[in-house]
Amino acid sequence: MPTLNCSLQGPAHGPVTGPVPTSNSHSNARQVALKILSTSSSTSTKSSSLISSLQSPSDRNLCTNLVQTANRREGQIDDIIQRHAKKRPKKVVLAALKLGIVQMKFLDTPPHAAIYETLEALKTFPSVSKPQVSFVNAVLRSASNSTSPLSPSTSNLSPHISSTLSSDWGSSVMSEVAEVYSLHDGGVTLSCTDVDVVGEMFRTHNVTNEISPLGSVGVKNPGSIKKLPGFDEGLWWVQDSSASLPAILLKNSIERIKKEGETVRVVDVCSAPGGKAMQMGSWGWEVEGVELKEKRAKRMRENIERTRLQNKVTVTVADAKTFQPSLPPLGFLLDAPCTATGTGRKNVDVMRRSEAEGKKMEEELVNTTVGIWENAKHWGSKVCVFSVCSLSVREGESQVDTFLRMGGVEIDRIMPEEVPGFEGSIDEQGRLRIFPSDRGDGFFITRFIFV
Ligand SMILES: C[S@@+](CC[C@H](N)C(=O)[O-])C[C@H]1O[C@@H](n2cnc3c(N)ncnc32)[C@H](O)[C@@H]1O
């Protein structure tokens, strides 16, 4: 592999050949993408507001795709930069290399257009010098001529995430997860108060959607979520189909034990932002949510008001390790705080977590969850569901072993007919272990019965 002498002080290179893109070529989207990629907060709310500042929906889509793909493919892009640049530049110059490479290697932009547009975006930054522009031009041209294969998508996972996934599930599952998390999937899945009403409304407004057997609605290209029909009326909320399963499984066991005409009262432990609480409230249940963080509880209250479920769902800010419900609940759902390693499709930071951060988080969250369980098991419930959106055995299967050792419960096996589309994810103990490559977010779910 020839490595050009692309130093920052290198000679200026000639113009890139090929047809020059017209003014209709989304230059604003690329400028904003470059700005976002040049700051360390490229996944933060600041980047969302920069993207929202773009006028046209197609610019916003392109910018999101550029930023998301550059973040998700960081390991593969870094490998290309390393092979073609002698020196690793900083900030906006590094961001320009990423922007050019992402277009050429991952978004099928013809190389001459990708390079031209990247250089034009770079030149709008007043602090950028001519030698820096020449450097970017030279590195991108060298990369565009290269026929070397890309490094595998596993290089986009941090060493900590790839080693924990491999030791828990083996290297082929780790590779599948890396592949899924490396793709930018702009789609969204919704839970609805009434799926038929939402399906009809989307049909009327020509919103292409797919309704899953569990009643979740998938929208591939949603654009702005708040502009989708039914948002203001509170007919739906964003929730992955695997995330809708814990409440559905609790419902099935409650149906079996509840008395004729009995009002179903449940506690939703660790409740915000409220996806599962709203699901249960939409079935007419009385749901008492418990959430530690005031800010998250506030967001949950807004969601409850938007979905008009305030008569059914309440949220109390409290530590679930000591919280006592106002009345004994028939059941509870503990959607425990976790490292969220199953949510990398939406949350790119998950892919990059360091060992120090990952281990500390896991240790704290596992202890918190055991403390919550110790408290909740004395509330007098008959059934409960435990779930985590983590792929870690320690946060999932091992926690269930701990709960069983603590006594008072048995596993209530999940049956295939309860989980259409996820039948293959039931393990030999009747628990659900869903991987992101199966469909949607990774989840682990176990249902218990008190004995
Ligand atoms: C996985 S999220 C819950 C998602 C929620 N069940 C839903 O469906 O929208 C976990 C939540 O637990 C909260 N939490 C963490 N520790 C807690 C504790 N000790 N008591 C109550 N809530 C806690 C976190 O702030 C976070 O909002």
TrEMBL record:
This is SAM-dependent MTase RsmB/NOP-type domain-containing protein. Residues 153-451 form the SAM-dependent MTase RsmB/NOP-type domain. One of its GO terms (cellular component) is nucleolus. Belongs to the class I-like SAM-binding methyltransferase superfamily. RsmB/NOP family. GO terms for molecular function: RNA binding; rRNA (cytosine-C5-)-methyltransferase activity. Residues 1-28, 38-57 are annotated as: Disordered. The active site is at 389 (nucleophile). Residues 38-54 have a biased composition (Low complexity). It comes from the Eukaryota.
